[in-house]
Amino acid sequence: EVLEKVKNESAQGEYNLTAGITVALEAGKIADAYRTDDFDEIMGVNDRVALSKAEAAYRERVNEYHMRNGVTLIDPASTYIEADVQIGMDTIIEPGVHLGKGTVIGEDTVIGQYSDVNNSTIGNRTTIKQSVVNDATVGDDTTVGPFAQLRPNAHLG
Questions:
Q1: Total-model pTM
Q2: All domains in the chain, ordered by first residue
Q3: Most-buried pick from 45, 47, 91, 135 (CB within 10 A)?
């Protein structure tokens, strides 16, 4: 309700979130402070450099979550995992991997370097070697690739 009333008046065409405090107070609302120990939660993004830094901080947070839950990321800085991806224990993710939205990976699985897996289910003890997997299902104890492309609705294993 308050944010809908914030006007876009900056020269860059940006909305100034702090203007929401004034709008809230004028509407008789209570504005409160939020304290954080993590600057990444509140960093401003005003250009592509800052956007890149925000994306890197987000990627680091997602990757750390998986590593703390039993997943090995060989090179976290080059690994891109969307927030809703589920990865089983003792799985190894090699460098340059992208795991897209809706992906579920089983336990003791290896996702090989530069693989791209999107909206797919990968079973336990499976190996994906430098491949692209889109909207597909790969069962347990299966090897895919190298250089395979699984298209939507493909089922292996």
A1: 0.79
A2: 1-38 (no CATH), 57-157 (2.160.10.10)
A3: 91
